[in-house]
């Protein structure tokens, strides 16, 4: 579903190139879930942007659903995102002029994969039933977050990319939203790559990797924790 082969990425800065990723290898299979941890500034969002084809590697290859993204032009990458990916970023990017109902089904409509029963199910599970005619500005932060999750899952994407999807919520609602997110990801049959700072958030996922000094390494404390369960 997602493959990184020896991916390198640096940014140009006034002080010279800032190397962020230095030979990343990664495989994520269909329906698998992976947590990506690492200190602030370690390159997690950079890796997620590369996975989404929003940016291109300097060297190496990123493969999404069998497509080498560097070989695609921007319109083809946009089509690949539309047809294959769901994105939940820290900024929700809800469309202010569309109500909850239309925001929820936007991605599914664009992808030509709208299923009204699934959209209704998502709205109910995400606690948005009854709010369909409201506009994003009339929702709480948590409701906006849940709407962003619902919109990304509405087309049942093969791969959901999530950057701190519960980062703006208090601990109690973050736990609830995460549990819900994982259930809905399973129901949708999507693979999941999720950036998080929180070991509690990472624990229920199949695997956890840490980005450090431009490379990925298994998180040993996490593996021990997982093997105790
Ligand atoms: N467009 C850019 N130009 C220059 N430097 C950048 C750019 N985007 C990110 N960086 C730098 O690259 C490094 C990695 O950034 P990135 O946002 O990927 O880290 P992160 O692990 O997601 O951080 P956080 O956990 O704080 O969100 C940081 O040092 C950041 O300052």
UniProtKB/TrEMBL annotation:
SUPFAM superfamilies cross-referenced by the UniProt entry: P-loop containing nucleoside triphosphate hydrolases
Annotated Gene Ontology cellular component terms: plasma membrane
SMART domains: AAA
Domain ABC transporter: from-to ranges: 2-229
Keywords assigned: ATP-binding, Nucleotide-binding, Transport
Gene3D superfamilies found in the cross-reference section: P-loop containing nucleotide triphosphate hydrolases (3.40.50.300)
CDD domains per the UniProt record, alphabetical: ABC_MJ0796_LolCDE_FtsE (cd03255)
GO MF annotation terms: ATP binding; ATP hydrolysis activity; transmembrane transporter activity
Protein name: ABC transporter ATP-binding protein
Originating organism: Billgrantia pellis
């Amino acid at each position: 579903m997602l493959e990184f082969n020896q991916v390198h990425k640096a940014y140009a800065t006034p002080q010279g190139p800032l190397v962020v990723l230095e030979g990343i290898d990664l495989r994520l299979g269909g329906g698998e879930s992976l947590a990506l941890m690492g200190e602030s500034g370690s390159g997690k969002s950079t890796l997620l942007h590369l996975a989404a084809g929003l940016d291109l590697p300097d060297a190496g290859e990123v493969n999404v659903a069998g497509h080498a993204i560097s070989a695609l032009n921007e319109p083809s990458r946009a089509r690949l995102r539309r047809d294959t990916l769901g994105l939940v970023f820290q900024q929700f990017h809800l469309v202010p002029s569309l109500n909850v109902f239309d925001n929820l089904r936007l991605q599914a409509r664009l992808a030509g994969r709208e299923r009204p029963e699934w959209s209704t199910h998502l709205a109910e599970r995400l606690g948005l039933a009854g709010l369909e005619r409201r506009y994003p500005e009339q929702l709480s932060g948590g409701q906006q977050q849940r709407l962003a999750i619902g919109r990304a899952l509405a087309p049942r994407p093969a791969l959901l990319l999530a950057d701190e999807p519960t980062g703006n919520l208090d601990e109690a609602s973050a736990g609830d939203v995460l549990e819900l997110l994982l259930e809905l990801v399973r129901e949708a049959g999507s693979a999941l790559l999720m950036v998080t700072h929180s070991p509690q958030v990472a624990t229920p996922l199949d695997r956890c990797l840490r980005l450090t000094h431009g490379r990925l390494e298994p998180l040993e404390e996490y593996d021990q924790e997982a093997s105790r369960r």
